[in-house]
Amino acid sequence: MKKTLLVIAAAGLTIPMATPAVADPPSWAPAHGYREKQRDRYERREARKYYRTDNGIRYWRGDDGRYYCKRSNGTTGLIVGAAVGALAGRAVDTRGDRTTGTVVGAAVGALLGKEIDSGKARCR
Prior knowledge:
The protein is mainly alpha-helical. Among the domains are: 37-70, no CATH class; 75-118, no CATH class. 55% of the residues lie in helices and 9% in strands. It has a three-stranded antiparallel sheet with strand order 1-2-3, with no helix packed on it. β2 (58-61) and β3 form a beta hairpin. One of its GO terms (cellular component) is cell outer membrane.
């Protein structure tokens, strides 16, 4: 009896794996859901005409008539500034365990690095 139940259970587990995936529509069917929306979004993005400012910032005019720009968000400057600031703070603070100098230096360096990397350019 045990063997029979095990065979039935094993067969019940293998049959669903043998059936094809029904989530994808056939290749000849028109896409009308998520794929269609993503395709339209991609085509709109590709149809944009990009302009460049004198300092190299790309910008474009959106469907709503506003200007948008693509520029650095300052993450790289934040990380590099924090590392350099931590080393400088540790070198300046020569008393005790030097934790305070390291933490304060990292915080100041991160803020300074982010501001330098992100720049002051604004899109209007």
